[in-house]
């Protein structure tokens, strides 16, 4: 399918899942806005490289997703927003009674509240254009839970709820809202953790992947950023016109347990 003429804003997209989704949208012909909280030469170089390799227009806009005004300004600076992918997120692991309040506030702001602010800014643009797609990158932790991840799990459950409300408020319009719920995805950040974990547990790479990282993922295989991107492109297709207000799990069977 072609997304030519559409503008996609992808938050938290200078690496990992966000970058993979952005690339798939660019390959489908969309004009893509990359984003993160930094404003380095290498951030803009990532956009230039993607543009060169895909032939799409790709630009980078700095915005701190912990700041409500910057979330909304990102969408405004993009100039258009037919496809909004809320992907920005951070993590911290600690028991509830030892969870630093500032970490809780940051995770709720970046992982959940940012999606509200960008959506609020994007919906008027989608309505003016007569078409729109809101795609929230939630998590398997938006549907289930793990200990010591109170803020992350709460935020991702909140994102799923926000997705449903967005879908209901746009149900009679040519706008859809859905949440993709990944399990463990092989990103550069995850890949970088494997050697240290191998040393810590005196395990082979295969053992670390299967028995440590993917202990809750029944397929015992990572999802890929390309699969995330392909799912996002599908949700932008006419085949997905009546898919709204739901979650799509890409978790190797995790949430089937």
UniProtKB/TrEMBL annotation:
Record's Pfam families?
Answer: adh_short
GO aspect biological process, one term:
monocarboxylic acid metabolic process
GO MF term list: 3-hydroxybutyrate dehydrogenase activity
UniProt xrefs under InterPro entries: 3-OHbutyrate_DH, NAD(P)-bd_dom_sf, Sc_DH/Rdtase_CS, SDR, SDR_fam
Question: Gene3D superfamilies this protein is in?
Answer: NAD(P)-binding Rossmann-like Domain
Q: Which residues form a coiled coil?
A: none
Top-level taxon of origin: Bacteria
Name the family: Belongs to the short-chain dehydrogenases/reductases (SDR) family.
The protein in question is named 3-hydroxybutyrate dehydrogenase
């Amino acid at each position: 399918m072609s997304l030519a003429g559409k503008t996609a804003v992808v938050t938290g997209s200078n690496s990992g899942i966000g970058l993979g989704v952005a690339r798939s949208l660019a390959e489908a012909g969309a004009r893509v806005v990359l984003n993160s909280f930094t404003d380095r030469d290498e951030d803009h170089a990532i956009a230039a490289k993607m543009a060169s390799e895909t032939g799409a227009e790709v630009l980078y806009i700095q915005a701190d997703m912990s700041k409500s005004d910057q979330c909304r300004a990102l969408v405004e600076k993009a100039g258009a927003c037919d496809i909004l992918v809320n992907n920005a997120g951070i993590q911290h692991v600690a028991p509830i009674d030892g969870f630093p309040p500032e970490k809780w506030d940051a995770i709720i702001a970046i992982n959940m509240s940012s999606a509200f602010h960008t959506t609020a800014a994007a919906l008027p643009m989608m309505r003016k254009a007569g078409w729109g797609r809101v795609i929230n990158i939630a998590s398997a932790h938006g549907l289930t839970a793990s200990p010591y991840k109170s803020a992350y799990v709460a935020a991702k459950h909140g994102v799923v709820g926000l997705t449903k409300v967005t879908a209901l408020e746009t149900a009679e319009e040519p706008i859809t809202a859905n949440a993709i719920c990944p399990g463990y995805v092989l990103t550069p950040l995850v890949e970088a953790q494997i050697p240290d974990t191998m040393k810590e547990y005196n395990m082979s790479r295969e053992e670390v992947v299967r028995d440590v990282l993917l202990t809750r993922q029944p397929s015992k295989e990572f999802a890929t950023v390309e699969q995330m991107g392909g799912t996002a492109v599908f949700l932008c297709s006419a085949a997905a016109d009546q898919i709204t207000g739901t979650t799509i799990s890409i978790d190797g069977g995790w949430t089937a347990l």
